[in-house]
Amino acid sequence: MRAPDLLRFASHAATGKPLRTSLLILSVAIGVAAVVVLTALGDGARRYVMNEFSSLGSNLVIVLPGRSQTGGFNPANAITGTPRDLTINDALALQRGGSIRRVSPIAVGTSEISVGGRLREVMVAGTTSQYVEVRHLDISQGSFLPEEDWGRAAPVAVIGAKVREEMFGALPAVGRLVRVGDRRVRIVGVLASGGQGLGMNTDELVFVPVALAQAMFNSNTLFRIMVEAKNREEIPAAKAQALEILKIRHEGEEDVTVITQDAVLATFDRLLSALTLGVAGIAAISLAVAGILVMNVMLVSVAQRTGEIGLLKALGATGRDIRLAFLAEAAMLSLVGALAGFLLGQAGAAAIRHFYPSFPAYAPDWAVAAGLFTALSAGILFGVLPARRAALLDPVQALAKR
Amino acid sequence: MSEAQIRLSGIERVFHLGDSEVHALSALNLTIAAGEYVAVMGPSGSGKSTLLNLLGLLDRPDAGRYFLEGRDVSALSPEEQALVRSRRIGFVFQSFHLVPRLTAFDNIALPMMLAGVSPKEREVRVARALKDYGLEDRAGHRPEELSGGQRQRVAIARATIMEPAMILADEPTGNLDRATGDEVVHLLEGLNSRGVTLIVVTHDPGIGSRAKRQLLMEDGQLRHDSASTRVNPE
């Protein structure tokens, strides 16, 4: 039997029973679509988190006060006790690091901003002019904090987009005097909206010079020091230098934690990739179920078509011809089902992206390929038994059954 | 005459029904020459259908040998037997056995498709067959849209499309009325007159008597062979 004839014969047989065929295709399609949509969700979550972290700024090294390492009770700890705080001078010292390009200290606290009778509670971040470069923030109006001595508490502020909208509405904000806590400051700039960072949405922040923030909150400690390495390759070196410099400054004690964005990213990447793999596995179960359905339907088909099989044998079909015809039918059904499921799944992922634009729900290529491959191989694999049964039918009995 | 077209020697066929053994055929010897017109008759269960299935290589004997054109075909593998069926044997059945989802054209083309004949040649040969059997305007119809006589004509066209050496017909008129039955018998006889061996299993004595040679089966054995009585009167 020629290959085109085989395919035509098998497709004729499949379309001869439209309801049976379309239900079967649907079951395979649902399986494949489940793989596509679920992995799109899993991988979308991964990309979403990656994006969030990337918006922190690239080549970023973050210095936190305190040691994150847990140790047993040590009498020395009892005496030296609390770790030293991070100070502006620590931040200034970090600028000496050979692999460090920029340093930006942050001091935070909550306060109130008020203007023209409107009052709002805000988070105030004290930092320096370099922060905008370290974090890759965009300014929509005016400019960021002025370049000046870190110890100088100039009475200026930069506000987030949401703060601007709520405090000023349609009125211009830049140049206005506002009260932040008990200080009067002049607004010099407004940040563009959408600047995201885990836990810190810049839309709702008010930035002031770091010395002003420390004076406002009556403290001389820092919340974080953001360090930008010169490039990606120098991140480990920047991390080591930061640790070294602070260790010397803190009398030989390593009482700070330095985390790199890469390490955090890699952890999340691993976690969420595992999650994606997990949901793909769950979706694959539905494909296996669809495969068993293919087998069941093909077995019924063989039983229904015994007369035809006997006839084909009488007309000179070999067992191989019949086996191939039934296998081709099973393969064709699962192929069409797989393609339909692929389209269905991609449409589903597109719908998710449409309703949640910030969520990048794209199914990864490996998952799509694996879904299609599993559907096809399950269809063919589960088609083997019915095809064998058809090929082994006794033609005399098969013909008598009509 | 050199070698007979069909030679059966010592054929046994036993079916097991529960504990009992049924000898569908026993100690059967038979030779049929090329171009003969043979009617196989006998009561139900006499073994005539089993004989036809054996001749058509749809069934295997439990003992004995079947020579087709000098070759022992009972020892061939199933795949080789399929090839013999494809090239040398055409079947006509009582209930037509057309594939319901295929058109008359495709039903007739089926044996050629199975044999791997090119679509172009199939087209030509089916068109000729449709013309020969007066089915030209029925080419695109499915079996359910055809009358009984038309269906059997499609079946005969299908049986002859590979130009076999013999036609095996199992009650070819069983599902037809008298007039269409006669029409079908004439078609088959026309094929026989062109040299194709025709073996018809039938209940109908009217049709049986038209054959040049009658075989009467009873209890799995050949009771009467009109050819041998003429040669060897008892």
Q: Could you give the distance between the termini of chain A?
A: 25 Å
Kindly provide the radius of gyration of chain B, computed on alpha-carbon positions and rounded to a whole number of angstroms: 18 Å
Q: Most extensive interface, residues per chain?
A: A-B, 25 and 29 residues
- The low-confidence runs of chain A, each spanning 5 or more residues with pLDDT under 50, are none
- By oligomeric state, this entry counts as heterodimer
Count the helices of chain A. How many?
13
Q: Give the radius of gyration of chain A.
A: 33 Å
Q: How much helicity do the residues of chain B have?
A: 25-40%
What is the 3D form of chain A? elongated
Largest sheet of chain A: 6 strands, mixed, barrel
Jot down its keywords.
heterodimer; A: 402 residues; alpha+beta; 2 domains; six-stranded mixed barrel; 13 helices; B: 234 residues; alpha/beta; six-stranded mixed sheet; four-stranded antiparallel sheet; 8 helices; globular
